[in-house]
Specification:
Layout: H1 17-30, E1 38-41, E2 44-47, H2 53-58, H3 71-75, E3 85-90, E4 96-99, H4 100-104, E5 110-117, E6 122-132, H5 133-140, E7 148-153, H6 161-164, E8 173-177, H7 178-182, E9 187-192, E10 195-196, E11 206-208, E12 221-227, H8 234-238, E13 262-265, E14 275-276
Parallel strand pairs: 3-12, 6-13
Antiparallel strand pairs: 1-2, 3-4, 5-6, 6-9, 7-8, 7-12, 9-10, 9-11, 13-14
Bound molecules: ligand MTE.
Ligand MTE binds near residues 201, 215 and 219.
Length: about 300
């Protein structure tokens, strides 16, 4: 299906999935960024085998639709995603309520195969389609003095069973430091496998920060705020002893209740060995963002 802001494209323009994957492997071989379909693990780069669309859309965390892994797939059909607008406010040159198509108009949708590591110690490999968050921030104009970006998820109580049950303090909120937000690995995803995001994956637009635990990747975003204060984040508010603001993937810092050294790849099968979790989830190029910070400390 054509992306809605590419009105000149039709179904006939869609790349078949096999070719799409093949093209990405070619890109991966030459990618300057090292972001596309490859994870640097120090000495050697590792080629990624993406999860199936079925796995990506049936094993989810989206507490607005319930706390079970299959609840979002069952309940998120009720989410109304059109029309969709995103409020951009705070320390920006061009604040406003943007229709999603207007916010993204003229920006490039890229293919990124990223590892995705949940704090619960499961992982997937997901072929996202998305726009670099930096492109969106540059478009709205970040003002000098802004240090953080805050994000907010839509609240539709009538459509969200988990919101009615108040399983968290909604709206779900998240945040990044500005340099994290501007890093080229950070994207706003609008699709998976060249199809628009399924509701349970955070339609129509969600954050993806591949070197951080999955809960930073906030879904169905309706507000982006530039601020000079570290913004509150949902899991930190819910349990500050267990979830910090930075939440970078770090196999040497255990969760208070379980080890983070290894992970179970979803779809790997019942008897598959757990995989070691790499530092920064295998994206060592972000290490310079944290120079001078004690990475063994809890943030
Ligand atoms: N965003 C919202 N609004 N609500 C949520 O419950 N869960 C987070 C994150 N974003 C969540 C959210 C968590 S814990 C994870 S691991 C990822 O979404 C899961 O993304 P996925 O379901 O696409 O794999």
């Amino acid at each position: 299906m054509a992306h809605r802001w590419n009105n000149d494209l039709t179904r006939a323009d869609v790349t078949p999935k096999a070719a799409f994957l093949n093209r990405r492997q070619i890109l991966a071989g030459t990618a300057g960024l090292g972001a596309i379909g490859l994870v640097g693990t120090g000495a050697q780069a590792q080629t990624l085998e993406p999860n199936t669309l079925e796995e990506i859309t049936t094993y989810n965390n989206y507490y607005e639709f319930g706390t079970g892994k299959t609840d979002p797939a069952q309940n998120a059909g009720a989410l109304v995603t059109s029309p969709w607008s995103v409020k951009v406010d705070g320390m920006v040159d061009n604040p406003g309520d943007y229709a999603l198509d207007d916010l993204l108009a003229g920006l490039t949708v890229e293919d990124r195969i990223y590892r995705f590591r949940c704090v619960e110690a499961w992982s997937m490999v997901i072929p996202w389609n998305g726009i670099e968050l930096a492109d969106i921030l540059n478009k709205v104009g970040v003002q000098a003095g802004a240090k953080y970006v805050a994000f907010e998820t839509v609240v539709q109580p009538e459509n969200m069973i988990g919101v009615r049950r108040r399983v968290l303090d909604f709206p779900y909120v998240e945040g990044l430091r500005l340099d994290e937000a501007m890093h080229p690995l950070t994207i706003m995803a609008t699709g998976v496998y060249d199809e628009p995001l399924a509701n349970q994956c955070g339609a129509p637009i969600r954050l993806v920060v591949p070197w951080k635990y999955g809960f930073k990747s906030i879904k169905s975003i309706v507000r982006i705020t530039l601020t000079d204060q570290e913004p509150p984040t949902s899991w930190n508010k819910a349990n500050p002893r267990e979830y910090g603001f930075y939440s970078n993937v770090n196999p040497t810092v255990d969760h208070p209740r379980w080890s983070q050294a290894t992970e179970r790849k979803v779809g790997g099968g019942l008897f598959a060995a757990r995989q070691p979790t790499p530092m920064f989830n295998g994206y060592p190029e972000v290490a310079s963002l944290y120079e001078g910070m004690d990475l063994t400390a809890f943030y």
